[in-house]
């Protein structure tokens, strides 16, 4: 079928809206008409020299939409269903079977190459040339996508479908890191480094968890202001020279938990320094450089753990997040600004600059 999509033709090129040909839904696949798709910093990775997913490519991995058709073997979802799209997983490896699909043995191949495990994809351009369109099992910067039954989550039809896409990655990652991976306890303290979509979701989740000291660290005052509105009990400017001292004072000797969303080695070491003994820092930001820690960094029982996608089972966790939203306890929609798909380059610019916390592209606009 004919679709339109934002195609990245070169690592340094702007996106171009192009007509493409999408194959029919195959075994285990679901055809989804995209209503909204969040722009995430992970969508910048194919611009990195040597990255595993190479242009031409359709990115986008925070889609939401309506199922239009299902392929053979699909019994868990039906046409007409409203869905949030999330990361893909194989469903059969040790970690998938153990309820940790974000650590699927095939996660990188399924999500970060732009193609399936067999190296093929469902999309060609007007010249018949292949365009990679399996980014996170969806490539949702398009009017229609093929996902799998495993990476769609059905949601109620009375929900504002156009803004739900970020639940599939950034909101799930931030909230899941706090509630599932760190299992933050009531009365505890947490410092969140980076008040973007993931960090602000973590702050909202920390308030849900009952943390009594929630500190946001960022370079932008507008983000720190929003963090205070969403649950942060204190904020710190990321460029301050005495940041470790400030954090230790705010958390009465060090935080029990910390979350790094930046991937910057200097920020990570700051997070570790500001932990109390037995404290844990979760790393969710894509690493920008090698991380080297002093030999004594993890003494006193300090812990560092990497977290993907909040260690969530999306089919269980996303409905939980939506119930929190209905209760007014997780207002993730406050992070969103919408753009037509044709304005994707503006959305990318605003995401990179921090002007917009969570751009959401609307293919139907």
Automatic annotation (TrEMBL):
Keyword terms of this UniProt record: Metal-binding, Oxidoreductase, Zinc
CDD domains registered for this protein in UniProt: benzyl_alcohol_DH (cd08278)
Positions of the Enoyl reductase (ER) domain: 10-361
Cofactor entry: Zn(2+)
Stored Pfam families: ADH_N, ADH_zinc_N
Superkingdom of source: Bacteria
Entry's family note: Belongs to the zinc-containing alcohol dehydrogenase family.
Protein's UniProt name: NAD(P)-dependent alcohol dehydrogenase
């Amino acid at each position: 079928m004919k679709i339109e999509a934002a195609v990245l033709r070169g690592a340094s090129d702007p996106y171009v809206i192009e007509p493409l040909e999408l194959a029919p839904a195959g075994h285990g696949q679901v055809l989804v008409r995209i209503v909204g798709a969040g722009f995430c910093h992970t969508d910048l990775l194919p611009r990195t020299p040597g990255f595993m997913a190479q242009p031409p490519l359709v990115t986008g991995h925070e889609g939401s939409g309506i199922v239009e058709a299902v392929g053979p073997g699909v019994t868990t979802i039906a046409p007409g269903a409203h869905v949030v799209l999330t990361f893909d997983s194989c469903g059969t490896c040790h970690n998938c079977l153990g309820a940790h699909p974000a650590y699927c043995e095939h996660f990188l191949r399924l999500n970060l190459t732009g193609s399936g495990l067999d190296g093929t994809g469902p999309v060609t351009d007007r010249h018949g040339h292949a365009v990679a369109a399996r980014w996170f099992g969806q490539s949702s910067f398009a009017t229609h996508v093929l996902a799998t039954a495993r990476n769609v989550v059905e949601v109620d039809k009375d929900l504002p479908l156009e803004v739900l896409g970020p639940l599939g990655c950034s909101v799930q990652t931030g909230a899941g890191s706090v509630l599932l991976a760190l299992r933050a306890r009531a009365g505890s303290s947490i410092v969140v480094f980076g008040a973007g979509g993931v960090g602000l979701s973590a702050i909202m989740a920390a308030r849900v968890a009952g943390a009594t000291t929630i500190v946001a660290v960022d370079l932008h005052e507008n983000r720190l202001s929003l963090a205070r509105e969403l649950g942060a009990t204190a904020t710190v400017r990321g460029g301050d020279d005495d940041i470790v001292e400030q954090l230790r004072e705010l958390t009465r000797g060090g935080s029990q938990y910390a979350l790094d969303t930046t991937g910057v080695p200097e920020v990570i070491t700051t997070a570790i320094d500001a932990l109390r003994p037995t404290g844990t820092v979760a790393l969710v930001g894509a690493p920008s450089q090698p991380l080297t820690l002093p030999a004594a960094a993890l003494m006193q029982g300090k812990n560092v753990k990497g977290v993907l996608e909040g260690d969530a089972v999306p089919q269980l966790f996303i409905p939980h997040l939506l119930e929190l939203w209905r209760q007014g306890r997780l207002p993730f929609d406050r992070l969103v600004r919408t753009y037509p798909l044709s304005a994707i380059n503006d959305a990318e610019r605003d995401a990179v600059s921090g002007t917009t916390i969570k751009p959401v592209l609307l293919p139907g606009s």
